[in-house]
Amino acid sequence: MDEKQALAAFAALSQETRLRIVRLLVTAGPEGLPAGAIGDAMDGASSSRMSFHLSHLEQAGLVTSRRDGRSILYAAAYPALSGLIEFLMRDCCGGHPDICDPAFKTLSTCCSPSVTGACS
Amino acid sequence: MDEKQALAAFAALSQETRLRIVRLLVTAGPEGLPAGAIGDAMDGASSSRMSFHLSHLEQAGLVTSRRDGRSILYAAAYPALSGLIEFLMRDCCGGHPDICDPAFKTLSTCCSPSVTGACS
DNA sequence: TCAACATCTCAACAGTTGTTGAAATAAAGG
DNA sequence: CCTTTATTTCAACAACTGTTGAGATGTTGA
To answer: Left if phi > 0, otherwise alpha if psi is -120 to 50, otherwise beta: which for A29?
Structure first.
């Protein structure tokens, strides 16, 4: 994850519809969802609007797509999300690791395999 | 950190100059830097341009400011950064904690107090 | 008080972004 | 093949964003 990619990712996440799409896909799991279902979840946004935002997210590397019959399935690009967080934390750690501790604690109680289910 | 705050933060971070300012301030530590010094670091950006971006970042809650003599010192708002990461990870954890593992590992080697200095 | 310094405010402008609606493409099933 | 379903592409338009340069504001030390 370099600066250019991070900028594209942040730009993609700075739009309400797109942020909601990402959150939906992230919780939907690796299988992804068809574009239509995503549109329905976004209070029935028009198909062209969905297509615009989904391409934008794919361009930014935050989601992937694959065709399945008539539908196109979109799924969260988990490594890109991890990379973005890593990019932020890399900054955060520069000389001041203690500062990052709150975030670290959140993650360790939320995401550590041994503490599954503790997510708030 | 709610959706509105997250959107503002992502929007603020999606601009090259502002992302660089945040990275600079994060590594500069809690004391912060005067606006002029930040401007110099941004290949001598004009003062009005700096003022615009710094206010934008402050509005988004990512930096704080305080006057010190003639200068105004800007510092990274570390809790806001942690909060943003937490917001992302909260999404990431929804039902699939194993997915977040790469990010978790990065943090544990980078930010844990017991592994200080391991930041890449 | 005045001159120098540090930063902010404002209006104008160019460039970018998101929405809409209509038309095009692609796949499935009768 | 033709119809239906699913999604994308395109042009037009309104709204928003970042830059610039000029001027205003606040602070310090002589």
So the answer is: left
Q: Give the gap in angstroms from C-alpha A89 to the nearest C-alpha of chain B.
A: 7
Smallest Cβ–Cβ distance between A111 and the set B14, B78, B100 belongs to B100
- Under DSSP, is residue B120 helix (H, G, I), strand (E, B) or coil? coil
Contact B81 A93 (CB under 8 A): no
Query: Could you report the per-residue pLDDT of B24-46, keeping only the tens digit for each?
Result: 998 898 999 999 999 999 998 99
Strand A33-34 with A71-76, pairing: antiparallel
Question: Domain count of chain A?
Answer: 2
Using CB atoms within 10 A of its CB, is residue B41 exposed (0-12), middle (13-18) or buried (19+)? middle
CATH number at residue A42: 1.10.10.10
Question: Does a structural domain hold residue A29?
Answer: yes
Quick check: helix, strand or coil at residue A72? strand
Separation between the CA of A71 and the C1’ of C27 (whole angstroms): 9
The whole-model pTM stands at 0.88
Looking at the structure, tell me whether residues A42 and A26 fall in a common domain.
yes
Give me A114's structure tokens. 């041994």
pLDDT digits (tens, 9 = 90+) for A14-25: 999 999 999 999
